[in-house]
Amino acid sequence: MFQCFQAFGIAKNGRRSPPKSPSREALANQANVYRSQGKKGIGISGMTEAERNDFNQARIDFKAYQHLFFSEWRRRICHYLGSYLAEEYPWYAAWYFLESRAIYLRQLVRLRKIGSMEDLRFKDIVEFKTAVRALPTDFTLVQLIVDEQNVLWLVRCGYDLIPIVLPLTKINVGKDDISHRMYNILLENDQSVEGNVDKRNFWIVRDQLNNKLENLISDVEYKWLDKFRVLLIPFGNINAEIEKNLKAAKEILKNAGFSEERGKVISARLFLHAYQDDYKYLLSIFSFIERETFGNPINANLNERVYQNLTKTCPETFFEAYLKEDRFTVLIVSPVC
Predict the structure, then answer these.
(1) The model's pTM
(2) If you write DSSP's letter for every residue of 230-249 in order, what string do you get?
(3) CB contact at 8 A, 191 and 202
(4) How far is Cα 70 from Cα 84, in angstroms, rounded to an integer?
């Protein structure tokens, strides 16, 4: 029916494909190249004139046709825009990524638009922010997305924090069997309840599937998520006493060079849930994102000093009640994961 929407086609139309979404390693390598050319960094500020023209045209296209739910076009254009905006404009990046595929948020829109059931989308960033700010205080929304270059992205949203949008790893389709194993588990699960079920073997098969799933989840954690795994852990409600510690933690991070919004994300809330090595690694990642302030990723001495200061300011024993509270993560997994 439609062949193309200006810059982005549903069918291939001879135009150049969107730039590849960067992996974590590519981010660092690309930043070094841009620095040597006198540019500030990657993303919006690192664009050439031609790239900026393509990018601006893509935004025009999405604004004009975002009401269309053609999955191939929508996923491609949203991932393209989101990957460029991830560092400098996390709200916009989260919006684009979640607009690519976000069943949970679609349902949220459905509930909020009782009188307008035909339009199940966030028409702009303001509407998206309003929906995120309205999430329950003990809920964290996380989406895992695999783009066309097989880069695994994490998008995390909470009611009172800026979104976190990060490329976690580039999946080697030829060697990585996690997706294939997940597909087989789903297939075997369906087969186990089809037809005349042998009652004697039913629970044997279910136990085997459960073991396979446990092994799969373990591999996802260590092969895909790695040190980013803490970002799947939800944050809980913050009372007045804990807020004092959070303010002190944010001040430590601010003095180290982090922005106030970023410091709020990686302050005591994240610190309490992460292993020491994982947290230090995340400090280096977030300092890289804010490299215009730091100049270079946070060095080992400053990293250690920040961690020790946070340990004194936020002793785990003080947060025992908080850590025992119920908290929830709504995890959305891309169909191509």
Answers:
(1) 0.77
(2) GGGSPP----HHHHHHHHHH
(3) no
(4) 22
